[in-house]
Amino acid sequence: MEIKRSSGLIFHPTSLPSNFGIGDLGKSSYEFIDLLSNSGTKVWQVLPLGITDNVEYSPYSSKSSLLGNPYIVSLENLENDILQMEDIEVFKELPRNYVDYANVYKLKNNLFEKLAKKVNINEKSYENFLENEDIRKHITFITISEAQKEDWNYWEKEYEDYSDNLFELVVEKYPEIISKHVFLQYEFNNQWQSLKKYANKKNISVLGDIPIYVNHNSADVWLNKSLFDLDENNKMGFVSGAVPDDFTEEGQVWNTALYDWDQHLKENYEYWVSKLNANLDKYDLLRIDHFIGFFKFWAIPNGDTALNGHWRLGPWDTFFKSINSKVDFSKLLAEDLGVELEETDRILNDYNIPGMKVLQQRIPHNDGHNEEHPKDWKENVVAYTGTHDSPTVKQWLSESEEQQIKFYNSYLNNLNISNESDVWNFIELTWRTPSILAMTNVQDILELGKEARFNLPGTQKDNWKWRIDNLDTLQEGLNKLKKLNEDTSRLNTLT
């Protein structure tokens, strides 16, 4: 990974303060970058920034691996002063310390439809934007999807496959819907690129995230049906998920589409080359979620539980050999948690791609649970206190078994770590690893507990909602973080 010894914070933009019920790409994002810079913290990690579904609102469940989430477009930063003051009034009653997704999306949708009537997609700026064929294809999909109000395999035959003629037909039949999506994606693209440029100016790198799988009802599958494991009716016989383990006894059912890896090989993995490069244009660094899926994956009969799944083989080394010359591996991070395979380690070593170690998962439960001391972790690894799927550090400390806390305390004593706060002991232990990059969640520098957990895997309600209402609350924690960055040789500077 192209990075010096440094540190970072996980903080999804939806969790930022704003006047619109959800964090966005506006003023608070820039202020957060300033705070990161002042604290000597190098990396801002975000979750996937794609369009979410309207049920669970998960960033990992999207209709497009390419398009941005319109609900985090900053309304205050829209071009041409298209927003009027009266448009803002309706957002004042929304909560400021969590995201009420249903109401935020409803209010913003009403506003988006109003704004779209003022947009002419024949203007030069929009025409230039739509010259990108992939963007044009994905916008065509989400436009038809909104108009048809059902999954793509139930659409009328004229919408079965993309063509330039279909795009023209959609513009003709659904002018307001497609104008809305063109406008919002144009704004998202411009706002995100401006924000990333500002971050880079402050010597901050943005670490993005890409799920390995995509929804069946997505532009990706609609445009590339042959690349997915579908039956003769374009439905999924098997779906993705996670094998049962110590953390989830019944496993997890993700209900996303599985790949037909043989077909990907025939096409030289061009779908993946295009998708990875599009995301590397968006971010400085890129985390690939569920990296193990390139080696083996859990296939679950559609409609069944994960307990009845089975292992299938992925493309293994043929995938990496094929795309190595076309994708910049030095910008990649592998989420290689869970099932451990020697082949995964070999690929990561061969291509110098760092994997991950999560401290919460690496402290033994008992004497028979053999784990490396954090001080012996490899350099080419990203060390995390926890991830967006983990308990906060405070929650983990309060819920862990006595034997695990005993091991944890022995690690602290071994490294002479002694802070007034045990949360900060945990963070410091992660920062003192040899790992090239050390990461924690913003909730942890705030020393928050269970109430601030961002996601509980396997559940469908009350996730992704946590947010702060004032960036000033971060200052004390960031001051401590700056001192820790200095003490552990992780301090990032502008030069």
From TrEMBL:
Keywords for the protein's UniProt record, in alphabetical order: Carbohydrate metabolism, Glycosyltransferase, Transferase
Pfam families documented for this protein: Glyco_hydro_77 (PF02446)
Molecular functions per Gene Ontology: 4-alpha-glucanotransferase activity
Entry EC no(s): 2.4.1.25
Reaction catalyzed: Transfers a segment of a (1->4)-alpha-D-glucan to a new position in an acceptor, which may be glucose or a (1->4)-alpha-D-glucan
Gene3D superfamilies: Glycosidases
Keyword presence, Glycosyltransferase: yes
Any single biological process term in GO: carbohydrate metabolic process
Keyword Glycosyltransferase belongs to the record: yes
Domain of life: Bacteria
Family: Belongs to the disproportionating enzyme family.
This protein's name: 4-alpha-glucanotransferase
Source species of the chain: Candidatus Actinomarina minuta
